[in-house]
Write a structure and sequence with these properties.
Two copies of one chain form a homodimer.
Chain A lengths: L1 E3 L6 E2 L5 E2 L2 E7 L9 E6 L4 E2 L8 E4 L5 E5 L5 E3 L4 E4 L5 E5 L5
Antiparallel strand pairs in A: 2-4, 3-6, 4-5, 7-10, 8-9, 8-11
Chain lengths: 102, 102
């Protein structure tokens, strides 16, 4: 049993994954045989992911703010706190917050 | 891309998994090849899990309240919001909130 106490560190998202400022806090990084990685990802206004894929898919759950997500070539969807999105394995997707300034 | 809008349903935790009242809201239930299952689990005071194992381990992240967790035979640990715990695969563990009444 491994406890990580209230981590106060956050790391900027790498520039090849994101445009704009994004901060990533680790939530779960378990050991084998687990494969899951969980993080709390904070997008500043205007930030977004690059188009990308996940080999086993990705699930997101919105905890604050209003965002947009899209499967490449599909409609842009607005997502709000409480919404969950599952992105199928190996399909190109992107995620961004809704801009707060006009 | 599958969006689940702010689900308003919660389900009582099964009696063979828990003692006391526990409510489970699904957060992520993705498709193959993903194996992860994520849920927001709400313990009422006095509720606790039965001793149990997870074949690939389990990660929890405390979002509210104060709880206790234990690997069977190990020390009881108090966990607070922001804390994460990784329970290794196939080791018997339990989780409970700290009682609020004396």
């Amino acid at each position: 049993m491994q406890i990580t106490r209230n981590a106060t560190t956050t790391a900027p998202g790498p520039g090849d994954w994101f445009t704009g400022a994004v901060y990533i806090d680790a939530v779960a990084a378990p050991m084998e045989p687990a494969r899951v990685q969980a993080a709390s990802v904070h997008f500043t206004p205007g930030a977004r992911t690059a188009w990308h894929t996940h080999p086993n898919g990705q699930s997101i759950h919105v905890t604050e703010g209003v965002g947009r997500c899209q499967r490449r070539g599909g409609p842009v969807e607005t997502i709000r706190p409480g919404d969950s999105v599952f992105f199928e394995a190996a399909r190109s997707t992107g995620t961004a917050p809704v801009p707060t300034a006009s």
